[in-house]
Design a protein that fits this description.
Helices cover 51% and strands 13% of the residues. It has 148 residues and is an alpha/beta fold.
Length: 148
């Protein structure tokens, strides 16, 4: 049994887990009302998934924007660098893409979905996260992250 678990683990690592590229035409043909809900996530829900370790936040703004202000729990991979930096993304977690509003993050989500990643975009944007993470809320959230 132990050997089987090791073999399965190695197979997942070797073949990248569930990350399988998709055909864009097929994706559009299968697009549904449910997908319009499934492709989005709100700030509060995102923060819970990040705290639990189930998701990672990818900030797709340009490096200069990220440098000016950022979320310390986000990884900056600018949209135009994403194709060359896929190896930096975990294949076993939800990838949440974000920008100030949601234009670039939605583009990144579509791209990652086509590459086979489980991805959502932050539909209320990073500006909403900054609004939510004030005072005691920020202290509590960052305290939870530091415990891990």
């Amino acid at each position: 049994m132990k050997k089987l678990a090791i073999i399965l683990s190695l197979a997942v690592l070797a073949f990248g887990g569930d990350v399988k590229p998709k055909d864009f035409d097929a994706y559009l043909k299968s697009f549904s009302v449910q997908e319009t809900a499934d492709m989005k996530i709100k700030s509060v829900d995102m923060l819970e998934l990040i705290k639990s370790g189930e998701a990672v936040l990818i900030d797709v703004r340009f490096a200069e924007e990220f440098k000016a202000w950022n979320m310390p729990f986000a990884k900056n991979i600018p949209l135009n660098e994403l194709p060359n930096r896929l190896n930096e993304l975990p294949k076993d977690k939800l990838i949440i893409t974000a920008c100030p509003h949601n234009d670039r993050s939605n583009m990144a989500r579509v791209y990652l979905t086509m590459k086979g990643y489980n991805a959502k975009y932050l539909n209320d944007g990073l500006l909403k996260v900054t609004d939510y993470l004030k005072g005691g809320t920020a202290v509590g959230f960052m305290g939870e992250l530091e415990k891990k």
